[in-house]
User: Fold this.
Amino acid sequence: MDWRAAAELVLAFPPLSQKVSRGSAADQQEGVWRGWENARVIRNRLIASAAAGDDTVGVAVDEAQLLVETALRVADWDTARTRDIVDPITHEPALALLTRLNREVRATAQAARERADAAYPDGYEPTEDEESAAWRGTGG
Assistant:
């Protein structure tokens, strides 16, 4: 439900209403269109998986981070509309929800970095077989 609320919030504020055109310098700098399209992809993934309630759905950490960053930005644009969108879905204030999601994403990213550091210490160079297996997706 939390990720659905964040995605719906972002999608409720189309980038064009903020006078940011797709591919413009402002878009590239602020990532507004990129964040909006990312939210659309995540919402479609939730719908396709028929996720309900607190079902687990896989979202890449960078996609989740972009969604939260964009949702935090758009939550400032219109707080009353933000409340109208998020409250019926989660019954939680938008800022509390997005702050919690932001902490969860950061913790997940940090845990992944720690696992990678433990698996691949400084100076580690993969063998040709390991590289080949990674490209094939067989995991070595």
The mean pLDDT is 80. Residues 94-119 form the longest helix (26 residues).
